[in-house]
Amino acid sequence: MISQSTIDTLRKTEVGARNLFIDGVQTAAATGATLSVISPIDGRPFASIADGNAADVDRAVLAARKAFEKGSWSRAVPAFRKKVLT
Hints:
By secondary structure, this protein is of the alpha+beta class. It has one domain. The protein has helices at about 5-10, 55-70, 80-85, and strands at about 15-20, 20, 25, 35-40, 45-50. A 3-stranded mixed beta sheet has the order 1-5-4, with no helix packed on it. Strands 2-3 form a two-stranded antiparallel sheet. Strand 2 (about 20) and strand 3 form a beta hairpin. The protein is flat.
């Protein structure tokens, strides 16, 4: 069971805006559209995330293919990949 103190802390937490991560860069969705993330605790929005579409998927796949073919990512050791992604 979650404590009231934890619930109160979570209610005060605002994550803010989050973008897509494509080609090593935080970027807005191609359309600029966003979605609100709703808290299950109180039903209020606490974050905004980029609302990606097919164009964003295409950009991400192209960037991933480029990185894989270049070899910098596909040849990177797992510890380096972890550092980049966290």
